[in-house]
Write a structure and sequence with these properties.
Order of helices and strands: EHEHEHEHHEHEHEHHEEHEHHHEEHEHHE
Strand content: 15-25%
Number of helices: 16
Bound molecules: NADP nicotinamide-adenine-dinucleotide phosphate
Helix content: 40-55%
Distance between the termini: 48 Å
Largest sheet: 7 strands, parallel
Number of strands: 14
Strand order of the largest sheet: 3-2-1-4-5-6-13
Length: 412
């Protein structure tokens, strides 16, 4: 369907903070011969971005498209085999492009961490994308690639050992250092506003299976709410507290399980937490972090503090400095028990600010994976997840790019 396209990959939003980083990653890492284009709503700003990308990008075509103009969006969707979008907030700007890519049979990847937007995308585009053979993949950044590939690798490791299904599986963030951009803050605030304004939307966000392909068929595993306060976890033998993006990642991982026919297991209980260790300060640190998260959430809902925050937000296009991006990092462990009593440990790590340096690698490699690794991709189309759309092919690419992704048995 999409073999005759003018381009292999086009980056929509190339003038924004994350888009510039993704374009820069592709300019530095895509092999010669991969046809890449930059898209956005201003030809001049695109030309400025391209000029700063160096020789490799000098001939890259520029495509003008505005998310508010369906004709330009449809043309964008037909121009490339893979469209990568960093035009957010996605709930404001995203759905038209997803619909256009689904209809055109064009693969699509983005950085959305917005549950409501992804739910809308599933409801509106699943059937069209599946019929047209398009892979629509949300969450190809720090939300939710480490979580989603980590769970997949654990599943494969347990399967290879004939160790049964995954059961209690907990992702623990043991180190996280980085910054945040104006675009990410705008996306978070936008979803918060929508949730506050509508009880129905609030229910969707709170549902652990919010992104399920078949909600009625999901198992009933009791209380699966995300953690909201620090406590000592006897199984992990450390203090754990909430992880700020558990609300999106857990839903994506559960969708991956369901899209694979619940291959991880029907008793797959998945959660994500921040680890605070075992030292004497751990409970205090955990309580302080949990309280800060609650205060931030409450502040977003309180008129005067919300108005102040809106005024203090950085300008669009701004984000963490080069030094913050370079010195950032993340370290994640995923602890799993299987139905046959095996214990497994997943390790996912990368140097570089998670939301921007590491994320631009993840989205850039996702684009190349969808465009170039088709023979290795799972035979699936529709609104997918990183694990179900790209799976082990993406894990291999990220390892080659210097990220650690591993899963191994630790006891009988
Ligand atoms: N999940 C993750 O790990 C992760 C990490 C990083 C970012 N993100 C997400 O990525 C998104 C972008 O973040 P960011 O920091 O790069 O934001 P940003 O700097 O504000 O960039 C937004 C981009 O969208 C473009 N845009 C805005 N309105 C448009 C329209 N009507 N038509 C076409 N393009 C339009 C802007 O173009 P102009 O230059 O013309 O204004 C700009 O290129 C956010 O939703 C954020 O949450 C997610």
């Amino acid at each position: 369907m999409s073999e005759d396209r003018e381009l292999d990959v086009v980056v929509f939003g190339a003038t924004g903070f994350a888009g510039r980083l993704v374009a820069g990653y592709l300019a530095g890492h895509a092999l010669g011969g991969v046809r890449i284009g930059l898209a956005g709503r201003s030809a001049q700003r695109l030309a400025d971005v391209r000029a700063r990308l160096g020789e490799a990008a000098a001939e890259w075509p520029l495509l003008v498209a505005d998310s508010a103009d369906p004709v330009s969006v449809a043309a964008l969707a037909r121009a490339a085999r893979v469209v990568v979008s960093t035009v957010g907030p996605y709930r404001v700007h995203g759905l038209g492009l997803v619909e256009a890519c689904a209809a055109a049979g064009t693969d699509y990847a983005d950085l959305s961490g917005e549950v409501l937007f992804i739910r809308d995308s599933i409801d509106r585009c699943q059937d069209v994308a599946a019929d047209a053979g398009a892979r629509i993949v949300h969450g190809c950044g720090f939300d939710s690639v480490p979580s989603d590939l980590g769970a997949l690798l654990l599943h494969h490791a347990a399967r290879a050992d004939d160790a049964g299904d995954l059961q209690d599986t907990t992702l623990v963030v043991t180190a996280l250092k980085g910054g945040v951009s104006s675009g990410t803050l705008a996306s978070m605030l936008g979803q918060q506003d929508e949730v506050r304004a509508s009880a129905e939307r609030r229910q969707v966000v709170q549902d652990p299976y919010a992104l399920s392909p078949d909600r009625a068929a999901e198992p009933n595993l009791g209380d699966e709410r995300d953690l909201d306060w620090v406590h000592y976890d006897g199984d992990l033998r450390m203090w754990v507290g909430p992880f700020v993006v558990a609300g999106i990642n857990t839903r994506v991982v559960r969708r991956s399980n369901a899209l694979q026919g619940w291959a991880y297991g029907r008793q797959f209980r998945y959660r994500e937490v921040t680890g605070f260790g075992t030292g004497p300060a751990a409970p205090m640190l955990g309580a302080a972090a949990s309280a800060a998260l609650k205060a931030a959430e409450a502040g977003l809902g309180f008129g005067p503090s919300r108005a102040l925050l809106d005024r203090l937000l950085p300008e669009p296009g701004q984000g963490p400095s080069e030094k913050t991006r370079r010195t950032g990092l993340f370290r994640i462990q995923i602890h799993a028990r299987t139905s046959a009593g095996g214990r497994y440990l997943g390790t996912i790590e990368a140097q570089g600010d998670p939301g921007y340096a590491a994320t631009s690698v993840m989205l850039g490699e996702s684009a190349l994976c969808l465009a170039l690794d088709r023979d290795r991709l799972p035979d699936r189309a529709g609104v997918l997840t990183p694990a179900t759309a790209m799976g082990l092919a993406l894990a291999d690419r990220l390892r080659s790019a210097g990220h650690t992704l591993a899963a191994q048995r630790i006891t009988q």
